[in-house]
Amino acid sequence: MAQLELKSKVLSILKDKIQLINTDEGAIYLVGPIRLPVNLFGETAVFHWYCWLNCEEDTKDLQQIIDKLSSSNLAELQQSSVLVYGDFQNQEDAIIRMHSICHTGDIFGSKRCDCGYQLKQSMRMITEYGAGALFYLANHEGRGIGLFSKAMAYLLQENGYDTVEANLELGFVDDARNYSDSIEVLKALRSKPVTLMTNNPKKLAALKAADLHVSGRTPLWGDITEYNKNYLRTKIKRSGHLEDGGACPND
Prior knowledge:
The protein is of the alpha/beta class.
């Protein structure tokens, strides 16, 4: 009886915090919001955190979901999430960032890329805007090739290959990222227009192809260093990134 009461209490806490989003392949389970105070440039900004999980089957049976999770090793499978700030659902316009995970840049502060800078700067811009969301996409490491493959690509880059050439030589395309999951989550959280923070026209095209109302685009450049200038130049020259808002390093 005590065990049943405990399960009932757990279910009562979680039942309004897990949302089912049906997809063609099964379902996305979105859990949240969870209050998350964040240290942002020495100040505390309070975001609301959501995390989502892809499943091949869909069910509204919460206990079945919990039982399945506890029997799976989800630590081996990264899940994406989103940080929401302000009245994201209702404010007339909100700013968003679709941020691809970068283990080396986001966590270690690597200067080989500008990812860590873009992560923190986009969070700052969201708080200054007043309403927005940072989508943190866990299956986008190395533009979709994974961390181990990214490490091999780095070795090629140290021997004269640029980022595009390295991916191609390893048998990948230049950019294998897919935004369908994050778009479905965005639709579940907001129906009004969004301004997208990006230099990548492919991200903008993905949102527009999904019939999302994109009211504008804000560039996100910065942190140009001797270590990443070739990386940034390749983004513009070979991957089609837009140069506005930041200088292309030519020296």
